[in-house]
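HUMAN: Forgive my ignorance: could you write out one protein's sequence and backbone structure tokens?

ASSISTANT:
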Amino acid sequence: MIYLQNNQKGVQDLPSTDVHERLSFFASLYRVDQNPELGMWLLYITIIALCILVFKLGFAKKLPLLKSAVIYIFLILGCTILTFLGIFLPITEGLVVASLILIIYKIRLHNQKKAEAQKNM
């Protein structure tokens, strides 16, 4: 067995890090480090809104009401975990990029369909 011995100064202190420097953009925007309750709720609502937008733009199909409700309930539960990860990781920023890509894709798809419809007339 290895026994750790303290030096004469005692236990060595860990280097101090500023939490604000490690926060993601949206977590620092919502000031999660200064007002954790409000900041976390704002981050949670932002992540839910972006997840719903990405889901609607990329994956959603017409489903009955009950099936849609079940999907959105599980999506909101999953967003709870993403919110805790989104404090230090760029979860929200990734969702913004994904939504922008899907919006551009939908606009181009709509324009292409409109051009094909005019061509066939």
Remarks:
- The mean pLDDT is 87.
- Residues 86 and 92 are 6 Å apart (CA to CA).
